Amino acid sequence: MSLSLYQRLALTVTGAFIVVAYLLFWWSSSLAEQAKHQAEQQLHLALAEHLANDNPLLQDGVYNKSALENLFHTLMVLGPAFEFYFLDSSGNILTYSADKDKIKRQSVELAPLVTLIDSPEQLPVYGDDPRSITGKKIFSAAPIYNQGNLQGYLYVIIGGEIYDSVFARVKTNQQLVQHGFIIIAAFVLVLILLLVLLRYFTKPIRQLVSEMELVKSHQFDSTQINLSHWQANKKNEIQLLGHTFAEMVTKINEQLMQLTDNERIRKELLAQLSHDLRTPLAAMQGYVETIAIKGDSLSVEDRDAYLKTVLRNGKQLKLLIDQIFELAHLEDGQVSVNLETFPIGELIYDIVAKFALKASEKNIKLSLNPAQCGYLVYSDIAKLERILSNLIDNALRHTPADGEITIDIQNDNDRVTIAVIDNGTGISQEDLSYIFDARYRASNAKGEKHKHAGLGLAITKKLTSLLNANMKVTSELGKGSCFAFSLKAVVV
């Protein structure tokens, strides 16, 4: 059973007060009972001695059982709070006035009697109760002699006589004063105990507040501080709160680092894109200025060459701008996905036909495996067309003349895997982890004759993430590359 902090504090305080209250009650009852017994025993201390000296039967030390029984009976009628017993010198009970079945023991211990007779100032003294096997009671006792020889003892058990006047004097003694001090000390002890317990229970809270202030002073940078190890204990709210706070600080720190890294990447990307934008613009401006300055002095061939260069740079500039807008749109996270069922073979044939002329110009074989494909998939046609177009275009740029590019399709239960395989320049293992980063250009692209925008693979990665198609790349430098992803198959 899980308890909240308030419940634990409430139970602790309640338990502490119950224990203290019980101890106080026990001490009070014990002291009151002791004071009562002390008063009663002192009040009747000489009772047995007076009876022994004033009664002829006991004064002469003559033992007469029937006469003593009558005497004890008479005395008990006069004083019903007392019980009278005649003991021999060994403590055996010889005479009493009571029913035999009420007497539980046949002898009593003589040591308390001797203590009371020799040291009557040390009260109360308890002796054996003949009517109980283990009980103890206060008593009065006197020795009985016969011609100088100890005959036995008169043993008087003192019962509950009213003693208000005597108790009023006794209650002001040192023990009751000590009792008052004990009560005060107990309350002080309870207060100290409660303060210690509250401090113990609130220590984790103070520690958590201290760590919060420390994190705040370090601008939520957890790398500069050492947070405590808080446990994810659902039964302990403070530990759970500390654990959640530590996770929150870690998450905030990760997000701050990510924002810092994104800001750095954004600045680098802007710088690189600015350079890429300036390059075709500068080329276009230079050729247009040349045409404008030289005018009719230019030959028709030179004018046509200049205009073709301007047109090529314009197309490159438009492509780069389109890709920048497309990537920004994808990263904004507001792109909608229109899923539908369609045959993947037909879409790939259309895409292959679109790149057939470009492939033939480089004498590259562009094929589909298997040649006839009737698999149905559930995906977004437009985004899938963009992914395959980027992959095939990327393969054409990195595959030399007389090379080969294959679009391989495999059906595996509920998934259709599409792979674009080429035998081109390949990608080194060092570059493989970064090829999907925006503006990253691998080493196999650094000698290209025609520059490209450099955002195609980054856009492809974003699109495959939207379609829940995990992109996998395998490549070996000088031998070619394979870009593969899978789509949800539709079983007819």
UniProtKB/TrEMBL annotation:
It is found in: Membrane. It catalyses: ATP + protein L-histidine = ADP + protein N-phospho-L-histidine. Residues 272-491 form the Histidine kinase domain. It is an enzyme of class 2 (transferase). Its EC number is 2.7.13.3. Pfam families: HATPase_c, HisKA. GO terms for molecular function: phosphorelay sensor kinase activity. The keyword Acyltransferase does not apply. This is histidine kinase. CDD domains: HATPase, HisKA. Keywords: Kinase, Membrane, Phosphoprotein, Transferase, Transmembrane, Transmembrane helix, Two-component regulatory system. Its main location: membrane. Residues 199-257 form the HAMP domain. One of its GO terms (cellular component) is plasma membrane. It comes from the Bacteria. The lineage of its organism: Bacteria, Pseudomonadati, Pseudomonadota, Gammaproteobacteria, Alteromonadales. The chain crosses the membrane at residues 6-27, 181-201.
